[in-house]
Design brief:
Length: 343
C-alpha cells in the first residue's frame, strides 16, 4: 500500500499524463501490472512497445486478441489516444508503411519451424500460459504471443513484424534474429509472408461482452474474523468442496493487513467442476481454485467477498465457456455455501 502511494506521488509531476494513467488503472492494470511489468498480460514498458505504431496499439486495444486473454475494449478514440500517450511516456511512435511485404511462404515456413516454432507454437498459437507470471513454459519468462491470432494480424503491419524480427524486443526472449542468427533480409521477408498467410477475415468489432451483474458478492458476517473463517471452511466441506489447508494460518500468519483491514483468504475447490472448466478453457487455471476473502475493517466489521467468476470468464473470449451453465451453477453453489456458513 505504502509503495503504491509513493509511486503515485512520484508520478505526479507528470500530470499531463493523468487521464491516461487513470484509464490504465481502470482497464489494464489488473493484467499488465501497476508498473506495467506484466502479469496475466505482457509487459507494456515504454521500451517494449517502442516497436509498435499508434495504429497497432489502437487496433490491439479496441479489438483485443480473441481466444487469448487480451479483451477488446469499448473505449472512445480520445480515451485510447490518452492511454497511448501515457504508455509511451514521451518515446516517439514509429510509423510503418502498410504495403504488404512479399515473401516466399514455403521458405518462411521452413525458417519458422527451425527457429520460431519452439516458442510461438506449431500452429503459431503462442506459448502456453499467458503473460508473465502465468507463463507455464518454464524456459520462457514471458509467454510468447500468438502470431496466428486474428487480432494480432489485424493490428500488426508487415513492416512492424519485420522490425521485431530484425531488432527483437528489448529485455525479452525475443532476440534480434539478424544480430543473433545472421538472418538476411530475404529470410525475414519470407517469415513475414508466412506469418501473414494465416490471416482470415476478422470481425474486429469483437469486444468484451458487458455483463449486467455485480463484480463480486459481499456478505456481512455476524461472527468475528477467525470464527467466520472456520465456519466458511466447515460449510465448504459440507458442500463437497475440498478445502485447502491454510499454511499461513498454521504458521500463525493467517491474516494479513491491507491498509486498515485484515484479510484471510479461504481457498477451496471441487475437482469435478475444476476438470470440467479446464477442459473448456485451460486458461481458467489462472483463476481457479475458488476463494472467499474474509475482511475485517478497522471498526471490527467482518465481511465475506466472493468474486463473480462470470466477469473473469467473459475475458477469455471463449463462447463455449461463456454459454456453459456450469460457471453460473458453481457461483450459486458458492453463494449458498457462504449463506449457510453465516446463518
Ligand atoms: C484480462 C487481461 C488483460 C487486460 C484487462 C488487458 N490486457 Fe493487454 N494483453 C493481455 C494478454 C494476455 C496479452 C498477450 C496476448 C497473447 O498472449 O497473444 C496482451 C497484449 C497486449 C498488447 C500487445 C503487446 C505486444 O507486445 O504486442 C497491448 C498493446 C496491450 N495488451 C494493451 C492493453 C491495454 C492498453 C489494456 C487496457 C485498456 C489491456 N491491454 C488490458 C491481457 C490483458
Ligand atoms: C525464445 C523464445 C522465442 C523465440 C525462439 C522467438 N520468439 Fe518471437 N517473441 C517471444 C516473446 C517472449 C515475445 C513477446 C515479447 C514482448 O513483447 O514482451 C515475442 C514477440 C514476437 C513478435 C511480436 C508479437 C507481439 O504481439 O508483439 C513477433 C512478430 C515475433 N515474436 C516473431 C518471431 C519469429 C518470426 C521468430 C523466429 C524467427 C521468433 N519470434 C522467435 C519469444 C520468442
Amino acid at each position: 500500500m505504502k509503495i503504491k502511494l509513493i509511486l503515485i506521488l512520484a508520478l505526479l509531476p507528470l500530470l499531463s499524463l493523468a487521464g491516461g494513467r487513470e484509464i490504465y488503472s481502470e482497464f489494464c492494470e489488473n493484467c499488465h501490472g501497476f508498473s506495467r511489468q506484466g502479469s496475466l498480460g505482457l509487459p507494456l514498458y515504454s521500451s517494449t512497445i517502442a516497436n509498435h505504431s499508434d495504429r497497432y496499439l489502437q487496433r490491439t486495444i479496441k479489438s483485443g486478441r480473441p481466444g487469448r486473454i487480451m479483451p477488446g475494449f469499448n473505449l472512445s478514440d480520445a480515451q485510447v489516444a490518452k492511454l497511448i500517450r501515457f504508455l509511451r511516456a514521451g518515446i516517439k511512435a514509429p510509423k510503418y508503411d502498410t504495403t504488404p511485404i512479399k515473401g516466399n511462404i514455403e521458405a518462411g515456413q521452413h525458417t519458422y519451424e527451425k527457429y520460431c516454432q519452439r516458442c510461438h507454437g506449431v500452429n503459431l498459437e503462442g506459448g502456453q500460459g499467458t503473460g508473465k507470471n502465468f507463463s507455464w513454459q518454464k524456459d520462457a519468462e514471458v509467454s510468447p504471443p500468438a502470431l496466428a491470432n486474428q487480432g494480432f494480424l489485424y493490428s500488426a503491419e508487415d513492416q512492424m513484424i519485420k522490425h521485431v524480427i530484425v531488432n527483437g524486443v528489448k529485455d525479452t526472449e525475443m532476440v534480434s534474429f539478424v544480430k543473433v542468427f545472421n538472418f538476411n533480409e530475404q529470410a525475414v521477408d519470407d517469415l513475414v509472408g508466412f506469418i501473414r498467410s494465416h490471416e482470415k477475415p476478422f470481425d474486429h468489432e469483437h469486444v468484451i461482452k458487458k455483463i449486467d451483474e455485480p463484480m463480486s458478492f459481499i456478505y456481512t458476517s455476524p461472527y468475528k474474523l477467525e470464527q467466520t473463517v472456520n465456519k466458511l471452511r466447515e460449510s465448504a466441506a459440507a458442500y463437497n468442496f475440498r478445502v485447502y489447508p491454510n499454511r499461513a494460518l498454521l504458521q500463525g500468519l493467517g491474516e494479513f493487513q491491507v491498509g486498515d483491514e485484515k484479510q484471510v483468504v479461504v481457498r477451496f475447490c471441487n475437482f469435478r467442476n475444476m476438470q470440467e472448466f479446464l477442459k473448456l478453457d485451460p486458461r481458467l487455471g489462472v483463476i481457479l481454485p475458488c476463494r472467499a476473502t474474509v475482511i475485517e475493517d478497522e471498526q471490527g466489521k467482518v465481511s465475506v467477498v466472493l468474486e463473480n467468476y462470470k466477469h473473469a470468464v467473459a475475458r477469455f473470449n471463449n463462447e463455449q465457456m461463456s454459454q456453459s451453465s456450469s460457471v453460473g451453477d458453481l457461483i450459486e453453489k458458492m453463494q449458498e455455501m457462504v449463506e449457510e456458513a453465516l446463518w
